[in-house]
Design brief:
Radius of gyration: 38 Å
CATH architecture of the largest domain: Up-down Bundle
Strand content: 5-15%
Number of domains: 2
Order of helices and strands: EHHEEHHEHHEEHH
Shape: elongated
Structural class: alpha+beta
Number of helices: 8
CATH topology of the largest domain: Outer membrane efflux proteins (OEP)
Largest sheet: 4 strands, antiparallel
CATH superfamily of the largest domain: Outer membrane efflux proteins (OEP)
Length: about 425
């Protein structure tokens, strides 16, 4: 079976080193390979950078979950006379010695019942989920870049084929001119050849516009701020087909990041449910205070504890919501697991069909079409074939060459989808 290559993402979370946003390598006339396109996408794609920010946010939530509640400090002074009676004591009349009642207290809330551990567990699961979603975004971006690059290659190949078909008919028109002078054909025959050549030229112009648009679409994925679509592809379809193989790939390499994200969400939902249940347990606040009230027992120390009474609010609503969220997360994990199996099966079927189609075009249909075109052209030059035979052979060969290019593109994309579904690295190790 034909070797098929493309680049797809690995599930590991890579260290992203953002490329300078003001220095674009995609200058007019520059060449770009598929590997270079993926490297640029992994460092500059806006959606991937946003996914990286989600990881940073989740890491910040972990810091928040690990923090202890801050203590509270209070200071109050009471029994200040306002009727003009003296507040002095035998100790004196300074602020420190007057009969004012001054209390300084420090209170500290203590979380019990596993609240802090459950909150930390939810935060850790949140980080794992964000990292897995980042890896999955990278996997999908890898596939998207492959599709966009192959689309640009196909459009460029279409332009070349249409120009070659037009040039072939121009050559036939020159031969027809000689036969016209010899009286073998009519002017209308030569005109039909020229019209068909003009049509191929117009189709080539339309294909050039499509090729540039395909390049612009790729530049958007690469995070290009001012896409122009003026670069040239360094790789060819044939080269990509020969760089790696997907033959014999049947098992998923490692757990797909979308499944890891779903499992992390389930773990987070479990921790959130435990947290909501633990919130039914009141948290005590321990207070230590110092009191000064001259003259008798001027300096005293007190201790206290307070906590809310769980009489009216038992957190039933939040517990029910957390339980429902946990059930949703479990269903989503099951759905993702089934979706992965479906993706692998569909991708394998699509790949086998695409590669069989590509091989048939490359080994059977296109060579036969080229031979028929050559034979009919030779016969027409010697008067052994009609103009209709010539034009039909030219059109059929043109259509088959375009279909062959499309079949090659479909084979590459189908193989890319299979590797992505299996969560395999971009290329096979030698």
């Amino acid at each position: 079976m034909t070797a098929l290559a493309f680049l797809v993402s690995s599930s590991a979370l890579p260290a992203a080193d953002p490329a300078p946003q003001n220095a674009s390598p995609l200058t007019p006339g520059s060449s770009l390979s598929l590997a270079e396109a993926k490297k640029l996408a992994f460092t500059r794609n806006w959606d991937l950078l946003a996914a990286r920010s989600d990881v940073d946010i989740a890491a910040a939530q972990k810091i928040v979950a690990r923090e202890f509640p801050n203590p509270t400090v209070s200071l109050s002074t009471t029994k200040i006379n306002t009727d003009g009676s003296p507040a002095s004591t035998r100790l004196g009349n300074s602020l420190w010695h007057r009969s004012y009642d001054t209390i300084a207290a420090v209170g500290q809330l203590f979380e019990i019942g596993g609240k802090r551990s459950n909150r930390k567990a939810a935060a850790v699961a949140g980080i794992r989920g964000a990292e897995a979603r980042f890896a999955d975004a990278r996997r999908l971006l890898d596939l998207a870049v492959t599709k966009a690059y192959v689309a640009a290659l196909q459009s460029t190949a279409n332009v070349m084929i249409l120009h070659e078909s037009a040039a072939s008919l121009r050559k036939e028109a020159q031969i027809a001119e000689t036969r016209l002078k010899a009286g073998d054909i009519s002017k209308s025959d030569r005109a039909q050849i020229e019209v068909t050549a003009e049509r191929f030229e117009l189709d080539a112009q339309a294909a050039e516009a499509a090729a540039r648009n395909a390049k612009v679409e790729l530049e958007i994925l690469l995070g290009e701020k001012s896409p122009q679509g003026l670069w040239t592809a360094a790789d060819s379809q044939e080269g990509i087909l020969k760089t790696a193989s997907v033959d014999g790939l049947t098992e998923i390499a490692t757990a797909r990041p979308d499944l890891l994200a779903a499992r992390a969400d389930l773990e987070k939902a479990d921790a959130q449910l435990r947290l909501q249940k633990s919130l039914r347990i009141p948290d005590p606040t321990v207070t230590v205070q110092y009191e000064r009230e001259p003259p008798d027992q001027a300096n005293t120390v007190g201790f206290g504890v307070s906590f809310p009474l769980p009489l009216w609010n038992l957190n039933r609503g939040n517990i029910s919501a957390a339980r429902a969220a946990r059930e949703q997360a479990a269903l989503q994990a099951d759905k993702v697991n089934a979706q992965i199996a479906s993706d692998i099966l569909e991708s394998r079927v699509a790949y086998l069909a695409a590669i069989a189609k590509q091989e048939r075009y490359a080994k059977e249909i296109q060579p036969k079409s080229a031979e028929i075109k050559k034979t009919v052209s030779f016969a027409y030059q010697r008067g052994g074939a009609s103009l209709l035979d010539l034009l039909s052979a030219e059109r059929n060969d043109n259509d088959i060459r375009l279909a062959s290019v499309q079949a090659t593109s479909e084979a590459i994309v189908a193989g890319a989808g299979l590797r992505s579904a299996l969560n395999l690295p971009s290329t096979r190790s030698p």
